[in-house]
């Protein structure tokens, strides 16, 4: 599952609530049927890799694996050793001497060897170059298929989410704007371009996500389950990035309108 939204949307806060690093000030959150960090058994079910892919600079790769084994009751030592060998990491090297991509892979190895039912990744590839990002995501996909666990992946890089995610949530201003299977979202969202037309003249089953107007032309992004028969419109499909930007743009427009009303 991909989680995407602008800076300040609440993505990291949500993921820290889900992993038990934060307590909700109101309401409640349930993860895998239990309260996050409710006890050792619940903690063992959820893995977390933070945005800065934290490792201990003064510890060696082997030290990290020994620490993981001591701290995690479901630790898979064989998985950790095999993955480190496959990545070509020297167990004797200190983490502080590794490249950014290697540190990210070490952090992912620790998360995977914990053998969680749910792995939460908060912007794990944000600072990596394209090759390191591809290698990280490829390793994640392979592990997900092999060990059959769920992943929540937060990222600003929609192209990465499109490559690896089955489900998408767009979060803006701490509110879910849209959520669903990626294929379904792409099949039900369209860009309409044609003569200028106000939104109240669109059919009721066409939910307007975003709108742009010139003196003579209107461009809408709409969500609809049915076909669009109006010959006045040029209908084009959306890439996932276009869809995400449309929902972000909608929130910007909503705030602008609300501000003008208050004034």
UniProtKB/TrEMBL annotation:
Q: Which Pfam families match?
A: ABC_tran (PF00005)
From which residue to which does any coiled coil extend?
none
- The identity of this protein, by name, is ABC transporter ATP-binding protein YxlF
What keywords sit in the KW lines? ATP-binding, Hydrolase, Nucleotide-binding, Transport
Do you know which SUPFAM superfamilies this protein is assigned to?
P-loop containing nucleoside triphosphate hydrolases
This enzyme's EC code(s): 3.6.3.-
**Membrane-crossing residue ranges in chain numbering:** none
This chain's source organism reads Nonomuraea coxensis DSM 45129
Record gene name = yxlF6
Under the heading InterPro entries, the entry gives: AAA+_ATPase (IPR003593), ABC_transporter-like_ATP-bd (IPR003439), ABC_Transporter_VariousFunc (IPR051782), P-loop_NTPase (IPR027417)
PROSITE patterns to which the protein is assigned, alphabetical:
ABC_TRANSPORTER_2 (PS50893)
* Domain ABC transporter stretches: 1-198
A GO molecular function for this record?
A: hydrolase activity
What domain of life is recorded for the organism? Bacteria
């Amino acid at each position: 599952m991909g989680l995407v939204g602008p800076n300040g949307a609440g993505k990291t806060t949500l993921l820290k609530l889900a992993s038990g690093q934060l307590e909700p000030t109101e309401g409640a959150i349930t993860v895998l049927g239990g309260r996050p960090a409710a006890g050792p058994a619940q903690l063992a079910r959820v893995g977390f890799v933070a945005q800065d892919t934290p490792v201990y600079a003064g510890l060696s790769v082997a030290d990290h694996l020994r620490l993981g084994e001591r701290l995690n009751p479901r630790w898979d030592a064989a998985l950790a050793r095999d993955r480190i060998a496959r990545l070509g990491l020297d167990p004797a090297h200190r983490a502080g001497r590794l490249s950014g991509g290697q540190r990210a892979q070490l952090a992912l190895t620790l998360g995977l060897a914990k053998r969680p039912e749910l792995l939460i990744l908060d912007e794990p590839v944000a600072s990596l170059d394209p090759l390191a990002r591809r290698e990280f995501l490829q390793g994640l996909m392979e592990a997900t298929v092999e060990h059959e666990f769920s992943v929540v992946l937060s990222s600003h890089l929609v192209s990465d989410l499109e490559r690896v995610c089955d489900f998408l949530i767009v979060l803006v201003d701490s509110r879910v704007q849209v959520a669903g299977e990626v294929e379904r979202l792409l099949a039900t969202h369209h860009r309409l371009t044609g003569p200028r037309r106000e939104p109240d003249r669109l059919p009721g089953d066409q939910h307007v996500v975003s709108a742009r107007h010139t003196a003579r032309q209107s461009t809408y992004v709409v969500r609809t389950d049915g076909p669009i028969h109006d010959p006045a419109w040029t209908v084009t499909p959306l890439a996932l990035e276009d869809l995400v930007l449309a929902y972000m743009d909608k929130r910007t427009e909503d705030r602008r309108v609300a501000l003008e009303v208050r004034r």
